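Fold sample X.
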Amino acid sequence: MVGLGPRRKPSRRGSLADVPKNLLDEIQNIEDQFILSADKLKEITEHFVKELEKGLTKEGGNIPMNVTWVMGYPTGDEQGTFLALDMGGTNLRVCEIILPEEKGEFDIIQSKYRLPEELKTGEADELWDYIADCLQQFIEYHHEGEDLGKLPLGFTFSYPATQEYIDHGVLQRWTKGFDIAGVEGKDVVPPFEEALAKRGLPIKLAALINDTTGTLIASSYTDQAMKIGCIFGTGCNAAYMETAGCVPKIDHYGLPPDMPIAINCEYGAFDNDHVVLPLTKYDVIVDEQSPRPGQQAFEKMIAGLYLGEIFRLVVVDLVENKNLLFEKQDISKLKKPYTLDASFLSFIEEDPFENLRDTHDMFLSRLGITATKPELELCRRLAELIGTRAARLSACGVAAICKKKNIEACHVGADGSVFNKYPHFKARGAQALREMLDWEKGKRDPIVLSSAEDGSGVGAALIAALTIKRVAEGNLVGIKDKTAFEEMVKS
């Protein structure tokens, strides 16, 4: 018998050979709108650097560049038991993290709780009560009847907040689909601690942090080459370590100029003025119909919350205004805003079959639409274009931080559902970095994106540990509740 060699995987590319000219012309039209050249990426990155710098000034800019009061990287020698609370856009996660004597090691117990959709637009008290209930459930399940003393908590609050202290934070604005009245412009810690006190929970907040800052610190705990932490998920963001002398807006603290201080960029707000980002008409609609028009311009082009909606808007346009797809079919399910998310596009891109059978079945089961092979080919190409544009734009933020800090080589710890689960996102981002930073071909990439999954839970615990440690050493800069910290240091 003739050896046929290893069995070939099903082709994942599909074929445009049987796509009629009118659809091919439309694919070309969509490509013209969504493909970003290397020159465009460089232009975006140059503007990005300017906006990062502006955010550090006293006057500020679109990008908040929030000072976190996290002062330096972990050494790997941190020890103790800490709670971490991670409030993202979809889930609430409670973790207990034990930092043992072994350098750079940790043990973790965790539970996940779904954030009910109605909480995102409900009352503030309902949110804090729900979070406190989850913490209570966690402690009762894992430590029933135990005397825990006061457990230090790192709270990963993944929304733009101004922090004059590490143990407090004033919400600037809701993102990721949240829009709870009466919280913006206020310190989120007192109502949170009130909800804890009401239940008599043995918890003291030691640090309020952003998931991106947590990712930076957790990644550097296990890999000292990590210099940037990124989130590419429901939202998008980055954090990096700045020096106090490069942050004019904290000059009045009189800190040593070389003192390291982590900056939470909140760069989803990059180019809110629409100077450089190449918006399509679909991006404009996403912005206009969002809870916060005119805000988070960059995030709305690359974050998981919006990728499916951009896809949906293009497809509805091709059906209703151009009569190119799904003739005489009911598209009522498709017309519901945000009915598709990034996982829908991910599924299409991962379809291994030449005839796009899985995509066909998905359209039928999710949307009640029977699509032809040429229609599926157009949808596949559209998903690729939206996913690729997101990855390439994401790389601009990384390149901008590297340019600003003159970083020529480092690791970038990335977390979030889009980075970890969206097909080819990492490779497409890496390719964009090569094009933007003009690296020599044939050599290993000097700046490498690597997965830092679950960084924010461990990162929050580490930051709590680092904060207690620096208070013990007499560094009380950025600490509000000094008495509580002194008690934590004694215990």
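Fold sample Y, listed below.
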Amino acid sequence: MLEQSSEFHHVGAGIQIPPNAARILQHWSLLPAIEPQSVHSYELRVRRWEDGRILSTSSDRIADKYGTDIYYIHRADFHAVLAEEATRLGVTIRLGCAVEAIEFESGTVILKANAASTDGERIQSDVIVGADGLNSVCRELLLGRKDPPRRTGDLAYRLTVKVSDMRRYEILHELIEHMSNDLWIGPDIFVVGYLLQEDGLYNIVLVAPDTIPEDVDVSKATPEEMKELLKGWDPRLQALLGVVQQTQKWRMLTSREMGNWGHKGGKFVLLGDAAHASLPYLAQGAAMAVEDGAVLGALFDKITARAQIPKLLQAYEDLRKPRVTKVVEGSLNQGVARKFPDGKEQQERDEWLATLGDDDYPYHFTEPGFRDWLMGYDAFAEVDKGWRG
């Protein structure tokens, strides 16, 4: 595995592992490593922005229906579990390896020159998987042109605060003790908050209109500007921001849908955000990459000769592309519905939320059965059905 960073950093904030991804980790025997570092979900509570009134509460019986809970974990802890397992399985992880070019027909990666190699190392392989994220060099090399991420008009403040600091405010005790995923929805803005570790960290994401300078995608921010954005909102949020020590804001970006993820030479394919970056409003971005990996790996289990690899890569794309396209579209819709200004659309949304039962989930603008389709996905069964040798 070639990683351009020179070292692994403990960066980022919280991430959700929904049942469709958690069952894959269970299949790989990784849940025992995930569980001690995460919090299991109990329910999702949707709140009105100005007073925190609960508009809808989802079921706390996710595991009964889908086989596992939703896990909330720090992104760096999740990354560490995956990297440790890859190393255990014999994967060589090479840091400081930035890609300069790819010769698609021969399956050759050319690295950028560095202190160890002035000419740029050439690495040949049977297949190349480009999994280098939203700002993918591999995607641009495949397309043969620049393909910068697309701006959405939103930004996100992402941060964690110490639970011990939250305990100083009685108004925040319920957020700690109830162990739910709380979602405040209001005009142009929404806020998500949940525990990452019972006695450790609480994760906060605040999505608001984009005000980041034009020449950067990440900018420094202050708790004071967050408080100003949430002036007049639920007093719990004002108290919560009172324990924030530092934060940054990220421009919310996505990518344009690609016609194909692979090269006609049959030795290259994209995976994860490099192929299908999604907004985080369904909390499924990382899960889609886990599903991609599970499908691709299961397909490799089906073949017996290198000559089958081109057909395998096409099967991978055929199995995955329709699903992730639907998830990307569904995620965009969630963001729209969460930010209605007060008025007719907001009232209709809130009335609909009030009709939901404990076993329903507040997915806006989706057809009946969407949650089952989303969380009930079985990557390995899809491969068994979709592979024809």
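Sample Y note: DSSP finds 15 helices and 16 strands in the chain.
Also: The first strand starts at residue 14 and ends at 17.
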